Amino acid sequence: MRRLRSRSGPCYSLDLQLSCNWFFPLLLLSATALPAAEAPYYVTYSAQMEEPGNLEVSFDQLAGGNFLSSILELEYGVKTWWTTEFYLDGQATGGQSALFTGWRIENRFRPWMGEHRINPVLYVEFEDINGAEKSLKEVVGHDVADDQLVPNDEARRDHQRELETKLILSSNVRGWDISANLIAEKNLAAEPWEFGYAFGASRPLAFAATPGPCTFCRENFSVGAEVFGGIGTWRQFGLPGTSHYLGPILAWQLPSGAQLMVSPAFGLNGNSHAFLLRFTVSYEIGQVFRRRS
Amino acid sequence: MKGALLLCALLATGNPYEGKPDAVRAGAKLYARHCAQCHGLDAGGSGRAPSLRSPAVQSASPEEMFHTLTNGRMSRGMPSWAHLPAERRWQIITYLRSLK
User: Fold this and answer.
1) Which ipTM score applies to this complex?
2) Which three-class secondary structure state does DSSP give residue B7?
3) B41 lies in which domain range?
4) Cβ-based contacts of B85 with chain A (< 8 Å)
5) How far apart are the first and last CA of chain B?
6) Model confidence over A201-235: pLDDT tens digits?
7) Which of residues 267-286 of A touch B (CB under 8 A)?
8) Run of H or E residues at A30
9) Which chain B residues are closer than 8 Å to A34 by Cβ?
10) For the whole prediction, is pTM greater than 0.80?
């Protein structure tokens, strides 16, 4: 969720969304599928990294109020300890327009080899977005639902370059993933550091796999919940004037290799959207840039 | 005394699926899903990862294999698989040990 922010970048109607909608299934058809096995969260990150050489393609949709936000994500495992990800963001608002709202590139680094009781991951992201961006990939500072009432024509002129950092702490406990993220975001032009948080817990419905192939068996489903929100800025740290969300998550791993995920999220105070609905389809392509042997 | 406690701990955490045919089949399914792209469909290895049929691997104890699977060998390119429930890691090991 973002306040009014400036941007002078390209904005055009549904062209980008349509090209994303075509690019994604075409890529899927030409790929070798692997299960997208990451912990099923939208906002929270776990310590799980993308496998080296694998590319995960995801298409996220977020419906809230009168808007629909879309993100195309390309996540690549560079090393076992380094994952990089590129995003293209867009949104459509009822009665206004559909537009491209910017891009982001993120890198996640896992500094400790091996598995520990708590696994830390360092996250660094650069964002080049405009004020019409409504993906809610994170909530920081004093982001509130009313920020998104600014009309697209006006909001898209607010251009913003931001640095976002996260400390990701994650544990695997008896089949459960438990993750906590502390978020610090900085507008590179002005404004103080803004802070946020995200917590998530999830587990597969069945821990052991069944002997044969199956589509609807419990092992293919994961359930969880996450809570996220802002905790103020460097100058005004604390909960007053912030927004917070809580949502359950259901993920389904299809035998084809695709993963579907759905999550209704509920605003926890008057500054939040009352209800959000997220949907994601993701697909992992094995060893995409490496020669097969 | 410490040795006896360690032995008890190892026995208590041994492979719960050892020798169970259903676990071998489940492990084969999980192997194909998670491991085959690097170690090969027949576990014979590839340019990216070693054979899991080698004597060095097959002579390892189930607990050693579980430790490797859980922690990975990140400096050598093998990721941690701790995000898989322990039951599924044991099923993979049961399958690998059936390749002897």
Assistant:
1) 0.86
2) helix
3) 21-97
4) 175, 203-204, 207-208
5) 34
6) 999 999 999 999 999 999 999 999 999 999 999 99
7) 286
8) none
9) 33, 37
10) yes
